[in-house]
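Job type: complex structure
Entries:
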Amino acid sequence: MPELPDVEVFKRYFDATCLDQTIDRVEVKEERLLENTSPQRMRKAPVGKEFESTQRHGKNLFAKLDSNLWLLLHFGMSGFLKYYNNPDEAPDHPRIIFHFSSGYKLAYDNMRMFGKISLLDDVDAYLQDQELGPDALSLGQEDFKEMLSQKRGMIKSALMDQTFIAGLGNIYVDELLFQAGIHPKSQASTLDKETVENLYNNMNAVLQTAINYNVNVDQFPENYLIHRRTLNSACPVCGGKIRKSRVSSRSTYFCENHQQKY
DNA sequence: AGTACCACCTGACGGC
DNA sequence: TGCCGTCAGGTGGTAC
């Protein structure tokens, strides 16, 4: 379930391993994941080049090959990166593999095949084309308030909408609503000022905490919902019952006691 | 514009 | 043991 924190950790992993190495060969193992890019071009265009830097926006990772050539990776539900040399360390479902002249390889693994691999000439144009909202971690509090006040519909739907805010998915939206004490079906525009500020602060805190722990969920604070995504488990904050329902066709866990409906 | 539902895809898991 | 239905969840499309 790669959401913003996961992709940020992938970015740091990519930066620490793959930059400034000549690409010898590109192995496209699953052509269905390519979008707006032919397999032939994907295999050819990066060869002889190096990844110079990376950029993340929401759940999208962009790696620069040239001023007008970028690799886009979207991880869907089950995607991740693996940098390795020894074939024993190869992941189970590699969909594309970049071979470096050092002998090391970068594999994009994605069991469930939701996801996207593409070559772009302009990142900003792509973000506009996709109508992606501002990245959740670089959004200021005033803008957040203003946007929410004008958003109709349920707060969970709003936060999951990538064209509204980019980066949040099902797990983290549940978590930050839980931390902020807001019922997921609350109407976005009816939250009062204090509640929205609290939500904003929790959004940043939860995302930052997840990144700081390298998305190692076991190390997340004990009062996080993520450890209790089970029907009728005890709320780690107030002892209430954790309930499950569906919001925006997604499994939604929340505390029936301390998450208030607005 | 918001919502509801389906499809895509694969593996895990529970029931029988 | 093994078959079957269900679930997980990011995104995109469609119908209301």
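Summary: Residues 32 and 237 of chain A are 44 Å apart (CA to CA). Chain A has a mean pLDDT of 95.
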